[in-house]
Amino acid sequence: MTRYTKDPEAIAALSPEEYHVTQNSGTERPGTGKLLNNKEPGIYVDIVSGEPLFASTHKYESGCGWPSFTKPIVHEHVEEFTDRTLGMIRTEVRSKHGDSHLGHVFPDGPREHGGLRYCINSASLRFIHRDDMEDEGYAEYLIHVEDIQ
Q1: Cα(79)–Cα(31) distance, rounded to whole angstroms?
Q2: Domain 8-144 is in which class?
Q3: pTM, two decimal places
Q4: In angstroms, what is the C-alpha Rg of the chain?
Q5: Fewest CB atoms within 10 Å of the CB: 54, 62, 73, 113?
């Protein structure tokens, strides 16, 4: 049994923007996300379920206006769906257990790191600093977090 669930209390605590993004598949305005310029070492978890999604080690500056990652920390926690909205075909990414809309994945990321760009809304994430990961129950993911240069 998983420890990550779509928690009604967590959903009730979301800000209007966080709710719009995660529950209604919305998108925050580019360049406005609170985690866009975060350079601290740690992990990014689903704001609703707490499931680990991305590590600071895999975050990079893509110039797209949203936090970008080369890969998920646990591939099984990120599900992909075809998104045909806005007159285009894209690949939406959602958290597996929280079913939160996270953003989209594109095939234009750094080739040396697999070629993918996970373009993720800050409003769907909660950042956990490396120094707090053990206390918050994420010690097993410390191996994924390197010092930021």
Answers
A1: 25
A2: mainly beta
A3: 0.94
A4: 14
A5: 113
